[in-house]
Write a structure and sequence with these properties.
By secondary structure, the protein is α/β, with parallel strands linked by helices. It has three domains: 88 residues, Arc Repressor Mutant, subunit A; 112 residues, Alpha-Beta Complex (Aspartate Aminotransferase, domain 1), CATH 3.90.1150; 253 residues, Aspartate Aminotransferase, domain 2. 42% of the residues lie in helices and 12% in strands. It is built from 19 helices and 14 strands. Helix 6 runs parallel beside helix 14, helix 9 runs parallel beside helix 10 and helix 15 runs parallel beside helix 17. The protein is globular and about 65 Å long. The two termini are 13 Å apart. The structure holds pyridoxal-5'-phosphate (PLP). Pyridoxal-5'-phosphate binds next to helix 7.
């Protein structure tokens, strides 16, 4: 079963029971705790707006609680605007209007929002934008509609692949509206209704959504901080299901930070090619190399293969250097998410299919943003140094703070990417997330990154934020953790009773 329900669908008591998982382990396992857990599922998107909830009677029977408890829960959800109940159509999930629950602001404001692993713009965007405005005149005489990408940007992206060691021609590039759009476009073109799609768990939830929206049934394969990809499961799933696509994040995998060793890339791509599976390698994080003390862990196999020095491990080449792979890139992390520029690198026949399919959804990427990205891709050495310095400070500050405050947690120090995948030592991630909101911190609970309600022991914490925001987040986590402290010892037993 999935832990993301399709919008507009009815959720069964059984499916909802799985999503609710550890609500009983909270310190007040009555209607208030149940309502809190349901609100979390609504707010973090696991219960999409429009989903019809089970009747009070069905849910009460499934959870083994009284109907009064469920009635009080639904009533509490109605009061906070998370549910509307209409005669004849039952209780339907809604998002409250801003007046009832103020949304956390991105930066500043009362709530620290760490639900996004994102960065502020890199220095130099303003100047690049000014130069792009100056260059814009040359583009104004034509229509400005540009479905495949401006030649100047396609060439700059191809040149960047060549700098990273992979021969690439500009006509292998399709410029998109960010990496998310690239995933959705590839899913639409490559996946048919009911097809299998391999994904990593934990993994990137919006990729799950895009693949599902294209009709895919997800086939999960595990990735862990310490051991990376479960290679035998991955190869077996490839052979058993011959899926049309496998979506992988081989570099600084979101959320574990793992990087796939070079030899493993070769084996995986070979097995995929034998099944006719297109490997989509999402390299959104690939250039966010932080280095330092996490290097030995995240890149340990790559390092072992090529160098004994933990800090000198070379970056792997882009995925397609090891075998056939379609790659996704983005300016969103290295430069700025607000540019909404990403791309796909594929062989020419697929480029043509993508371009033909694209116009059903959008008609191209804005020209000015393309010019800004083309400009800055010529300055990547400076850009990436600045990013690495920012992220190294953020990672070291967050990791040190977490290790000091929560000695029972396992806190990895990843070699790159934007976040650390923390093991809480007990299956209390959703509870902690609910409690943290009450202390002014929004974070994404571990199960957001799975497909079956798993990962209650994990929390993804981004290290891309300022020291001040991180300190506020740490304080909120400490207060929230204290609130659920009494539950930790008993949570193992309490959980095993639920579904
Ligand atoms: C792995 C991964 N792919 C894609 C995206 C989306 O990137 P973009 O902002 O370029 O759409 C993200 C954003 O966090 C991501 O983590």
């Amino acid at each position: 079963m999935s832990n993301h329900i399709g919008a507009g669908a009815a959720v069964s008591s059984r499916a909802l029971g799985t999503l609710l998982d550890s609500w009983r382990a909270s310190s007040s396992p009555g209607y208030a705790a149940l309502a809190d857990r349901l609100r979390l599922l609504v707010v973090d998107g696991r219960l999409p707006v429009g989903t019809r909830l089970p009747s009070e009677r069905e849910l009460a029977a499934h959870l083994g609680v009284s109907r009064t408890t469920v009635a009080a829960t639904y009533s509490s959800l109605r009061e906070t605007g998370h549910v509307t109940s209409l005669r004849g159509s039952g209780s339907v999930v809604r998002l409250p209007s801003r007046s009832t629950t103020p949304r956390p602001t991105d930066r500043g404001g009362d709530v620290v929002d760490l639900t996004k692993a994102a960065l502020p713009a890199v220095d130099g965007i303003g100047e690049a934008a000014q130069r792009a405005v100056d260059a814009l005149g040359a583009y104004l005489p034509d229509s400005g509609y540009d479905i495949v990408g401006r030649p100047v940007l396609r060439e700059a992206i191809a040149a960047r692949y060549r700098e990273r060691g992979l021969d690439t021609h500009a006509d292998q590039i399709v410029v998109t509206l960010g990496a998310q759009h690239a995933i959705a476009l590839l899913a639409r073109v490559l996946v048919g209704r009911g097809d299998r799609a391999i994904v990593e768990v934990p993994g990137y939830p919006h990729a799950f959504e895009a693949l599902r929206a294209a009709g895919a049934r997800l086939a999960p394969v595990s990735v862990t901080v310490d051991d990376g990809w479960d290679e035998s499961a991955l190869l077996q799933t490839l052979r058993r299901t011959s899926p049309p696509v496998a979506y992988l994040m081989p570099d600084f995998h979101n959320p574990t930070g793992a990087t796939m060793p070079a030899e493993q890339r070769v084996r995986v791509l070979e097995a995929a090619a034998a099944e006719g599976t297109v490997v989509i390698a999402d390299e959104t994080m690939a250039e966010l190399r932080v280095g330092g003390d996490g290097e030995a862990r995240g890149l340990r196999d790559v390092g072992r293969a090529s160098s004994s020095s933990s800090s000198a491990a070379p970056a792997p080449l882009p995925m397609a250097a090891y075998g056939p792979a379609v790659m996704i890139g983005s300016a969103g992390k290295s430069l700025w998410g607000g540019l909404r520029v990403g791309w796909i690198r594929a062989e020419r026949p697929l480029v043509e299919r993508l371009v033909r399919a694209r116009s059903a959804g959008d008609l191209g990427t804005p020209v000015l943003e393309q010019l800004i990205v083309a400009d800055l891709l010529g300055d990547m050495e400076r850009v990436l140094e600045a990013r690495a310095a920012h992220l190294r400070r953020g990672r070291d500050h967050l990791v040190a703070g977490l290790r000091a405050a929560f000695p029972g947690w396992s806190v990895p120090s990843p070699a790159g990417g934007l976040s650390t995948w923390v093991n809480l030592g007990a299956p209390v991630s959703s509870q902690l997330t609910v409690a943290a909101r009450q202390h002014g911190l929004a974070v994404a609970a571990g199960p957001m990154f799975g497909v079956d309600g798993a990962f209650e022991r994990f929390l993804r914490l981004p290290f891309s934020y300022s020291a001040e925001e991180t300190d506020r987040a740490l304080a909120a986590l400490a207060a929230a953790w204290e609130g659920i402290d009494g539950v930790q010892a008993s949570s193992g037993t309490a959980l095993s009773e639920v579904v």
